[in-house]
């Protein structure tokens, strides 16, 4: 993704924790030595998890050194995928899907609620709520559109009111149950009809 927000304030160095060094050794064993640069994505992910959900440029350099590849090769992967953050995000990091199925089902209202409750601009941290939001492409839960991802979890079947309720819950630090917010299980039909058993469904 071009134009990704890169933090201006960068730490001068980055080291993986001992625990993560062990994880990385295990990952690298999966690749022949000459192809170890293929491990770039899991290593970026580990760096992000270790560093409060964002990847400093020093980590990109370290990963490039570890994989014996060019800095730009790691940087271009980190800037292409929205799953990698190159600037600090909130403790509650909201990714709003605005691809066509979610858009048709009202993701515009969810974006409005992000602007109202989190920050007028995406990629900016609301310090009071310790939260931030960005727009992303399809997250693969179109059957329960519109939806958002908050940190690692999906919240589906949203509308303005339900999104507002979730964002307000940041204040109490108690997020609603993950998954559908309309009460349906998984992606079963909205009116509880079971298409295999009900001929009229
Ligand atoms: S379009 Fe939003 S999850 Fe697929």
Describe, in plain words, how this protein is organized in 3D.
- The structure is a single chain.
- The chain is of the alpha/beta class.
- The chain folds into 2 domains: 18-80, Arc Repressor Mutant, subunit A, CATH 1.10.10; 92-180, 3-Layer(aba) Sandwich (Glutaredoxin).
- It is 35% helix and 10% strand.
- It has 7 helices and 5 strands; from the N terminus they run ααααβααβββαβ.
- The protein has a 5-stranded mixed beta sheet, covered by helices on one side.
- A hairpin with a 2-residue loop joins strand 3 (148-150) and strand 4 (153-156).
- Helix 2 packs antiparallel against helix 3, helix 3 crosses helix 4 and helix 6 (107-117) runs parallel beside helix 7 (160-172).
- The model has no long low-confidence stretch (mean pLDDT 93).
- It binds FE2/S2 (inorganic) cluster.
- Residues 97, 99, 101-102, 138-142, 145, 147 line the site of FE2/S2 (inorganic) cluster.
- The class by helix and strand makeup works out as alpha/beta
Tally of helical runs: 7
Q: Order of strands across the biggest sheet?
A: 2-1-3-4-5
CATH architecture assignment of the largest domain: 3-Layer(aba) Sandwich
Strand content: 5-15%
Hetero ligands: FE2/S2 (inorganic) cluster
CATH class of the largest domain: Alpha Beta
């Amino acid at each position: 993704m071009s134009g990704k927000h890169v933090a201006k304030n960068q730490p001068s160095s980055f080291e993986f924790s001992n625990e993560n060094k062990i994880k990385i050794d295990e990952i690298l064993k999966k690749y022949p030595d000459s192809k170890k640069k293929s491990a770039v994505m899991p290593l970026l992910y580990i760096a992000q998890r270790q560093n409060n959900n964002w990847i400093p440029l020093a980590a990109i350099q370290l990963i490039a050194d570890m994989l014996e590849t060019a800095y730009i090769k790691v940087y271009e992967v980190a800037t292409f995928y929205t799953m990698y953050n190159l600037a600090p995000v909130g403790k509650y990091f909201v990714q709003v899907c605005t691809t066509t199925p979610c858009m048709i089902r009202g993701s515009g209202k969810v974006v409005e609620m992000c602007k109202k409750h989190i920050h007028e601009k995406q990629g900016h941290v609301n310090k009071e709520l310790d939260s931030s939001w960005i727009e992303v492409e399809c997250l693969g839960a179109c059957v329960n559109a519109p939806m958002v991802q908050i940190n690692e979890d999906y919240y589906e079947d949203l509308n303005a009111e339900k999104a507002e309720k979730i964002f307000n819950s940041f204040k109490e630090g108690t997020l609603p149950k993950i998954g559908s917010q309309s009460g349906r299980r998984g992606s079963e039909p909205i009116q509880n009809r079971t298409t295999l058993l009900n001929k009229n469904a």
